[in-house]
Prior knowledge:
It is a single chain. This protein has 70 residues and is mostly loops. 13% of the residues lie in helices and 0% in strands. The longest helix has 5 residues, at 17-21.
Amino acid sequence: MRPLKFGAGQPHTRLEDPPLVMGQGKFVADCMPEESLRAAVLRSPHAHAKFKIVSLDAAKAIPGVKLILT
């Protein structure tokens, strides 16, 4: 069976890797505007655990916190 000219099983030359490996590339995190927001997700380390959130006041008091979802 002849190999396909294009498609499955053919090598693909990745052009973006050499600049990133040599420190000359740009990552998305390097291009973020000053006013950009970031997200953090906190999950329970216990599967199927039931817990109760008593207060979010401490989290709201952290400088830069814009939104808390529960």
